[in-house]
Structures are given as structure tokens and as C-alpha cells.
Amino acid sequence: MTLALEVKNVIKSFQSDSGEIRAVDDVSFAVEAGEFVALVGPSGSGKTTMLSILAALLSPTSGQILIDGVDLANMSEAERVALRREKIGFTFQSNNLIPYLTALENVQLMLRLNQRFDRAGAVRSAELLSRLGLGERLNNLPAQMSGGQQQRVAIARALIHNPTVVLADEPTASLDTERAFQVVQTFAALIHENNRAGIMVTHDLRMCQYVDRVLQMRDGKLVKIFTSREEILQLAKGE
User: What residues form DSSP beta bridges with 12?
Assistant: First the structure.
């Protein structure tokens, strides 16, 4: 398989009144195309900061982030903006949908921004929303949908332009248990089918049953990587 994302010795430090704080402390890992990975850890472990760095929203203090072999550190701000738009799909805890666009239009927007919108893209957008259980909500505005429905629109928007890397920050935070399982299972299937690299930050360890590996962070460090299916299922069951 092809490496889609490489993280090499990444450090992110902040200055405080008491000195330097390392939110991310010398973290290294790689994710292959077609692999779905969960990033877990307690509050303050550095996982959300790590995700922001992967999304090119935050620059590391040192280290390398490579997407399709291209080092983000060697890119201008304009080049990073283009890379985020073309190669990264991102879902936030707050879904950030455009309030005056319908569910379908919100998803199609990513294709339009990348100048890849056509009839096939329009069909694919509707099919993806239907697969996420929103076939009857295509023409609804965000205000006409529940928080969980809005989150599923955001997931479709993150996947529609076939990015190299798909990042999800707590994608099930506003979903009930049944819908959360359905969404993450579908998310995993789409990652595998479309050969994308997927990383999901989650506090709900039950969702780990759908991923290929689990990266556990604590105090800014990557402390453990769960790779065996048995280990991952035990983690998901809370054992």
C-alpha cells in the first residue's frame, strides 16, 4: 500500500507564564491509503492539536508533515490553502455548514471550490448523502435538520472531493449511539473503498471497533499503538 500521510518527529510547543508547554511532543507515525486510524487519549493529551497540525491549520514548531510525499513545511501559505482544499477533508465538532445552502449544495460546494463539479459529481453527492441516511433531506437547509443530521452532511462534504487524507474531530459527538455506530461504520467503509487515509479523533472508544489501528496519546506523546484486531476490540469493549 501507499503511504498517504507521514508524521516525522513533530513537536508543537506553546509559551506560558510557567514556561514552555509541549502540546505535541516528538510524535511520529504514518497512515497508508485505505487505512482508517483512531487517535485517542484523555482531554489535554494533544490529540486535537495533532489533528489541527495534520489539517495544515496549525504549523508544528519542528518536525515534518508529508501528504502524498509533499512536506507542508516547505509550502507557502497560498500553497497550504490549496492543499487543504484539494487533498484534505475535515469534519469539525461544530459542523461549519453554510446556513443558506441546502444539504446537497453544502456537499457540492467542495467540488465547486476545486473546479470539479459536473453531472457525475452532482449524482455522487446525492448518493453519498443517501448512504448516510439523508436521502430525504437533500434540499433541507441546516436549520431544518437536527445536529446529528448536520454532522452527517459535514462528513459527506469531507469525503466528496476524494481527498488524500480525511480528518474527523469527534464525528459522533452529536449523534445517538445507534446513529453513531452507523455513521462510523459507513465512514470506515468509504475510507476503505475509496483508498483514502482516514484519521478520527474520538473520546468514544466503542467506535474503535471500525478502525484498522488505534494511536493513543498522553501528555503530548504517542504512548501506544494498537494494531492487532484482538487488542482493538478489547479496547472498544472497555476491557
Answer: 24
